[in-house]
Amino acid sequence: MKYTEEHEWLRVDGDLIVVGITEYAAKQLGDVVFVELPEIESQVAKGDEVCVIESVKAASDILAPLEGEIVEVNEALVDNPALVNEDPTGEAWFFKLKIDDLSVLDTLMDEDEYADFIA
Amino acid sequence: MADLQHLPLAALHAELGAKMTPFAGWEMPLQYPAGVMQEHLHCRAHAALFDVSHMGQVMLRGPGAAVALEALVGADLVGLADGRQRYAVFTDDAGGVLDDLMVARRGDDLFLVVNAANADADVAHLRAHLPAGIALEVVRDRALIALQGPQAEAALAALIPDAAALRFMDAVVLDWDGAALWVSRSGYTGEDGYEISVPVARAEAFARALLAQPGVAPAGLGARDSLRLEAGLPLHGQDIDATVSPIEAGLAFSVGRARRPGGARPGGFPGAGRILHELAHGPARARAGLLPEGRAPMRAGTLLFESEDATTPMGHVTSGGFGPSLERPVAMGLMPTRLCVPGTRVYGEVRGRRLPAVVAALPFRAPGYRK
Predict the structure, then answer these.
(1) What CATH code is assigned to B1-281?
(2) Domain B284-371: which topology?
(3) Nearest-CA distance A96 → chain B (Å)
(4) Closest-approach residue (CA) in chain B for A56
(5) In chain B, what are the domain boundaries?
(6) Nearest CA to A22 among A11, A9, A32, A13?
(7) Does residue A47 come out as left (phi exceeding 0), alpha (psi in the -120 to 50 range) or beta?
(8) ipTM of this model?
(9) Where are the beta strands (DSSP E) in chain B?
(10) Paired residues of B113 in beta bridges
């Protein structure tokens, strides 16, 4: 698993990247009550606001961690936003991204580096 | 940022695992480990303890305090019985709301609780307008604790049996273990409950004694906000401010019958001309409840439109979020009065899209007050 400074995790799944938010981020957000997902087949640039996530108190965005194409989104989050709090690194993935070059993942933090980052 | 003030119960909040946040110059508990949603639901089902010691507590002493304060608010305070409390709003000469407050009568004296963010301005306003002979004391040696929810009565009565006999908006002095507590049966959640002013030296022991009662759990500012939103209660600085009149805000009840035309003491408060005119003829705009049809919350500031393609906004959301008890987004907004009819569909612009919302009567939930 790789991590961004925006508290997203990235997991390689075949030739795709699965993206979600970390347990730390889910805890900071609090109870998630609304999730808006990007459109499938949309091209995104690194840093684009691709998802909206709202807790009882506030709204925030999930940014595209890398340039690529959104090929799948997790509709289960729309019906049950609380999944983000219940299983942020498992069932509550947000989208799958197709990227040209998997090696860019090497520029991201690994688990130990992320643990230091949030410490 | 200027140094934050710390609550008398700061150590207890830390021990309870509170996540703190700056609010109105104070470091306040935003939530505890249970989280906003659980704290909210716990309050509706059991009882929640809120530390609201940031709020301003002010005593006005002396014969004529009620008459004097009536010069600044539209409430009937002369007619406020000893041991009773009433909601009031400070208005300015244009009829806008400077702050809203609770006023409790104790003999000749009045005990005021005002919003933290406005406390200094309110005290200056009072000092500038009260006649000589009325002593104003800012009460700094007392914490303020709100105990709210259906189990609040049992919890407080376990410590102070007489608390059970209070009715909604009673405000009395009760003894707890040698400490004089100023207890009112009121709150800001739409639930039955109490607000209790307690000497700082005894505040932590008192809070711990309440938390030890069955069903009592701490709740933070986050839950306080979602609870008051579901209860349709306005928040100064958001739903009401100097640009909004109390009549527009749906607070006509804060203008006593005695202060209206034909009453014993009509008018005589700042902005009375506009306010009494709006009372008689209706305001051009009003505060309305809104139920967004989808799942997306409509937050404060969301522009409201009469139709999907209207070019100019007709109003805006003043408070909005998710209502945990209603399990849906809820909001309040200021809109033209003709649209403030329950069932009317309007549109809020959220992230560039017009999303439908239906006007609903306030409060969204029937209150649990013990009248």
Answers:
(1) 3.30.1360.120
(2) Elongation Factor Tu (Ef-tu); domain 3 (2.40.30)
(3) 23
(4) B322
(5) 1-281, 284-371
(6) A9
(7) left
(8) 0.87
(9) 5-6, 19-23, 26-31, 47-51, 56-61, 85-91, 97-106, 109-114, 135-138, 142-148, 171-176, 179-184, 193-199, 216-218, 285-292, 303-305, 315-323, 328-336, 345-350, 353-360
(10) B57, B102
DSSP structure string for B286-347: EEEEEEESSSS---TT-EEESSTT-SS--EEEEEEEEETTTTEEEEEEEEEGGG-STT-EEE
Domains within chain A, CATH numbers bracketed = 2-101 (2.40.50.100)
In the block, tokens 């925006």 appear at A6
pLDDT tens, B283-323? 999 999 999 999 999 999 999 999 999 999 999 999 999 99
pLDDT, tens only, B23-72: 999 999 999 999 999 999 999 999 999 999 999 999 999 999 999 999 99
Domains B1-281 and B284-371 share a fold: no
Output the six-digit token pair for A22.
């970390």
Interface of B to A at Cβ within 8 Å reads: 30-31, 35-38, 40, 222, 225-226, 295-297, 299, 321-322, 324, 329, 351
Residue B268, sorted as left (phi over 0), alpha (psi -120 to 50) or beta, turns out to be left
Half-sphere exposure of B124 (CA within 13 A, CB side): 5
Of B36, B295, B351, the CB nearest to A56: B36
- Quote the CA–CA distance of B189 and B179 in Å, as a whole number: 26
Run of H or E including A61: strand A59-63
Nearest CB to A31; choose among B35, B296, B329: B35
C-alpha–C-alpha distance, residues B320 and B29, integer Å: 21
Count CB-CB contacts under 10 A for residue B219.
28
Predicted confidence at residue B1, as pLDDT, reads 52
Counted across chains A and B, CB pairs separated by less than 8 A come out at 47
